[in-house]
Amino acid sequence: MNGDLLLNIVLVVVFVLVGGVFAATEMALVTLREGQLNALAARGRRGEKVAALARNPNTFLAAVQIGVTVAGFASAAYGASSIAPSVVPLLESWGLESGLASTVATLLLTLMIAYLSLVLGELAPKRLAIQRNAGFAYGVAPVLNGFANLMRPVIWLLSASTNVVVRLLAATRTRPARR
Question: So where does this one cross the membrane (predicted)?
Answer without folding.
Answer: 6-24, 59-80, 100-120, 132-148
